[in-house]
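Problem 12. The chain below contains 97 residues. Write out its predicted structure in token notation.
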Amino acid sequence: MNNTRMRRRKGAPLHHLPEAVTLARENAGLTQKALAEKLHISFQLMCDIEAGRRNADPERLRAMARVFGCSVSDLQPGSCVPRLDDEPPRARPRKAS
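Solution.
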């Protein structure tokens, strides 16, 4: 029997920004346990996603964004990984020299 669960390679980029997931969850007034129940995942997986030990797959990121009422790009790092939604990249403000 093959284990089809894929783990993130050590050092591989995450599809999400752990701090953004934590902030969005707290702003939504949810505990890790409550969010895990809404997403139908284990509490341990939710903890690992927020700690950056496990990757949130694209479907899970979309589900989180729906729960939080935000866009997927709000949960993703800048341009480190491909965007998962149809939103064009946001222009970053230039620093004055």
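Discussion. Confidence is low (pLDDT under 50) at residues 79-84. Students who got a different answer should revisit the alignment rule from Section 12.3.
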